[in-house]
Amino acid sequence: ELNQIVRSTACFRSAEASGKLNRVPMGDGMALLFFRNLEEPVRCALEISRALQEQPHIQLRMGIHSGPVNPVGDVNDETNMAGAGINVAQRVLDCGDAGHVLLSAHVAEDLAQYRHWQPYLQDLGECDVKHGLRLHLFNLYKDGLGNPEVPEKLKRRKWKYKSAVVRPVSPPRWPKLLLVVASIVLAVALISVSISIRR
Question: What's domain 2-197's superfamily in CATH?
Fold first, then answer.
């Protein structure tokens, strides 16, 4: 059911038709790798959130990051994609709760170059994740899509965070074709069962 929802979004179909989308199965989930522009995975996340409003039994969280990925051969001699772009997107996702669309600071700063996104980017501060990595995160909440609450993992932090709308602070960092991708990692929790959709 969720795969159909994801595949039915306009951004997914457009990127797939242009050959600028890779789908990577990951355990009980998938990663979606967009190669055209940074706004595409963000729009796709919002389209998925909108479609899921009609499916309240599916609880979804998403993480978006832009970073390098490389083709690699897997144990079955199939070509797959791996790299920091996928790994960090997964760490971003891990910080969220049901309904969240979380962005890495890297993505949020680039997205903030577009004035129309600025009011929807909420600075959540930093979150400690696996392997001693600390990520600066932003929450995307627009027109009732996403989750406006601070994620539980971030509420348990010992340090304070400053909540603010992000503004452009540096020139945009645009990905090099086929070397850097904007990625969206989806995770699904069906009632009490957690199912991850990672790209």
Answer: Nucleotide cyclase, GGDEF domain (3.30.70.1230)
